[in-house]
Design brief:
With about 280 residues, the chain is an alpha+beta fold. Helices cover about 20% and strands about 40% of the residues. The chain has helices at about 30-40, 75-90, 135, 160-165, 170-180, 220-230; strands at about 1-10, 15-25, 45-50, 60-65, 70, 95-100, 105-110, 115-120, 125, 145, 150-155, 185-190, 200-205, 210-215, 235-240, 245-255, 255-260, 265-270. A hairpin with a 4-residue loop joins strand 4 (about 60-65) and strand 5. The chain is globular, with a radius of gyration of 18 Å.
Amino acid sequence: MRIRIVDAFTDRPFGGNPAGVVLLDGDSWPEKAWMRHVAAEMHLPMTAFAHRLPVGSEADWALRWFNPVIEEKLCGHATLATAYAVHQDRGTAGTVRFSTASGVLVAHTREDGTIILEFPAVAVSERSAPEGLAKALGVELGATYDTGALHDVLAVLADEATVRSLAPDLAMLAQLCIRDDIRGVTVTAAAADPNSGHDFVSRFFSPHHGLPEDSVTGSAHSALAPYWSARLGQDSLIGLQASARTGLIGTEIHGDRVHLTGRAVTVLDGTLLALGA
C-alpha cells in the first residue's frame, strides 16, 4: 500500500507541516487500531487515511486523521496534503470533496498547484482566560476568545515579537487543557511590519494531544481568519505561523466559510508493508 509524507502550507521541502497520507486501496475503513499503529509508526503531527466513495455520494472520498495520541475531528494541513496527493495521482486540476467528522470539506486545486480548502468559518466570542493560562504561557495576555466547536482558546498577545519569543511551560499547559477540556491554545498578534508579506502571526500548542507545538495549523485559521478580517477590515489576509518550520496560509472570508490557501510538497513516497488492515 502506498504511503506518502507531504509537507503542507509550504512550497519547499522540510517547511510547513508534515502529514502522512494513505489513500486506501479499498472502499471501506480498516480497523481503527491499525490506523493508529500506522500513525504511531509515522510519528508525524497527523496521518490522513482516505478511501473512495461510490459515485453519487455526497463526497468523493472519506477522510480521517490520526496522530500517535488521538483521532482528530478537523485537520487543515492533512486535508491539504491529501488533496495534493489526489491531485498528483489524477494529474489535473479540479475539485475534490471529503466526507469527514466535521462534515463535507471541499478542496480546489488550481493549475499552478495552489490548493484552496473550504472550511467552516468559526466565530469567536470573548471569554475570561482559563485559570493559569498567563502563567503557563509566561506572558501577559490581552483578550482571550472561545472558538466554539474547535474547543481552542485564542489568546491575543501584545505584538509579533512576543508571539515569536514565547516559551510556554508545556507540562502546565497540558494540565490546563485537560482540566478545562481545551483542544489547544492559539496565540496571535498583528504583523509588526505591514510590508512583511503577512498580516498576522500565530502559534498553536496542544501538548496533551501529542502536539507540543504544531508547525502550521489549518483548523486554527478557521477562527483566526474571521477574527483578523473583522479587526483589520479585510476579507483576504495572509497568516504566518511562526513555528520553527513556519508556514503561510492565505485566508479569505466567504460568508460562513473560510478559504484557506496553500501549497504542498511530497518529501517521501513509499510502500507500507505492514498491511494489518
